[in-house]
Amino acid sequence: xxxxxxxxxxxxxxxxxxxxxxxxxxxxxxxxGVTALSEVSFSVTEGHIHAxxxxxxxxxxxxxxxxSGLYHPQDGRIRLHTADEPRAAGEVGxxxxxxxxxxxxxRIARLGVARSFQNIELFHAMSVLDNLMLxxxxxxxxxxxxxxxxxxxxxxxxxxxxxxVEEVIDLLQLQAVRTKPVGSLAYGVQKRVELGRALCLQPSxxxxxxxxxxxxxxxKEDMAxxxxxxxxxxxxxxxxxxxxxxxxxxxSHRVSVLDFGVLIADGTPQEVMAEPAVIEAYxxxxxxxxxxx
Amino acid sequence: xxxxATGIHHRTYVSELRLxxxxxxxxxxxxxxxxxxxxxxxxxxxxxxxxxxxxIAVIGAVGLNILVGYTGQISLGQGGFMAVGAYSSxxxxxxxxxxxxxxxIGAVLLSAAVGxxxxxxxxxxxxxxxxxxxxxxxxxxxxxxxxxxxxxEGQGYLNVDRFEVFGFKVGARAVFEQQWYxxxxxxxxxTVISARNLFRTGLGRSFMAVRDQDIAAEAIGxxxxxxxxxxxxxxxxxxxxxxxxxxxxSEVVSWxxxxxxxxxxxxxxxxxxGLGSIAGAVYGAIFMTLLPEVIRQVAxxxxxSVPFLTDQLPAVRNATFGLVIILFLIIEPRGLDxxxxxxxxxxxxxxxxx
Lengths: 293, 354
Description:
The complex is a heterodimer. Chain A is of the alpha/beta class. Chain A has helices at residues 60-67, 105-110, 128-134, 144-149, 153-171, 187-199, 217-232, 245-251, 269-274, 276-283; strands spanning 20-31, 34-45, 49-53, 75-83, 95-99, 113-115, 205-209, 237-241, 254-259, 262-267. The longest helix of chain B is centred in the C-terminal third of the chain and has 27 residues, at 224-250.
């Protein structure tokens, strides 16, 4: 997979693996009379791929939108734990705790929470390269006069950030489409560009909303491989919403199951699969044909 | 499918980030430079004054395109922001007595501040609703410059002294247009270059991100409110510069020059030229400034056979303006810039169609 040696780490966080990265506590989100999320609590561990599954309308996307600040839950808390860069190897920098429910989305992105969207939300008129460079936005300085002068700091900055963007292009094998406008690309490639844009943030937490929706088996396999690369090689923690049970069971460390806005199970894939409530939510009442979950 | 130049192999990011890559692009740039250098020596004063008006329009249109074409914030306040630049520069220079360059810089900064203030509704409104809000800003500024007698000391218009910079004073009638040509050319070139630069940096990209997908822009950490206000500030800064130059060039400032018609004329420029393209703003400024002149010449030439054209010249001109905008919206909504791109592609692909 690796076609060259990488200079940049795509992981922005400095929390040691195994610690609690994200804590969702009794999050409740209502739209008028509809309760999209009702007292949902679980936590995401640093270094894991954490899948969130559930039938349509279960509140999975709403939950992701709450984490990235697009929705603000009426009740409950969502806390992100981060650590500063350690001064020496083996140490852990000072820890911080951020309450995400009160922050606007762009501030949450600055904390290192990157995401992709269920319906691709790329900048369609711009090239793949520009889309990925936009992923570097929070790491760049944007002085008006420097930008207009170009020569000097602005150009140096463009080139410096281009190095990391090229590594993401290499990791996701987007070389051939680098200068193409994303609006003209195939659906599967657009999904990959969106993953790439999120990676360019150097996230400490990557939120993926159905990255494999609408793909064929081969494209799904590719995408699963990319997600594993991101998690295992780049050590980025991932929260993943996905409908394909095979994929979820294969690649995730932990699974949380939502149904009608309520958390009905949370555990390892094996534990969750054995949970009667999960089988019921997916296949209807017990006693019916127990097909492949 | 766009044609790309073959045989260009960038070895460094520096070379890839250049605005021009092929030899023919450098050749065209050279040709354009030569044309601009000989222009004042071959044109008579009348045509040179048209060119000067074009150069001012280029600055204004590039400014408007930054806001409308690149950031997606429709603005009908162009005339108002130009008025802010014109009045403030005239007052700074003549009544306060600042040197002209300082007066113009002050006018640019003040226009940027006023533009930012009137951009505040853009934080909540999008599309047509924002257009109406900026229409309000046009009306408010127009009202203020008509009714605030302090601005013109009660005479309704402002006379502006002959343009003077670092001891050099623009000369009399014979050299007036020529000397202004050089001043305006330098400023227009700086405007175009700095706008081109802006859109190859992160700041310019964040403008386009807000235009294309504002939710996704927020999710990658773009402060959408700040970007919109910055776009309003930069855009109205350039527009204010165009206004200030109008004041110093025509040496008289009155509110009739900055009505809603001006706002719509500039919108027409960037639509005809091409939204979201700096070159398009330039083409549009040339096209819309020369169009009335062409109409007039055609009407004069045909005055013996069709006297109606010269008798009703203003009506004919307005009708043609409307027709041109409608035709562009139907046939090539992406404007003259797109037509130029297509011509280049045709030649690149020749003898194949695609």
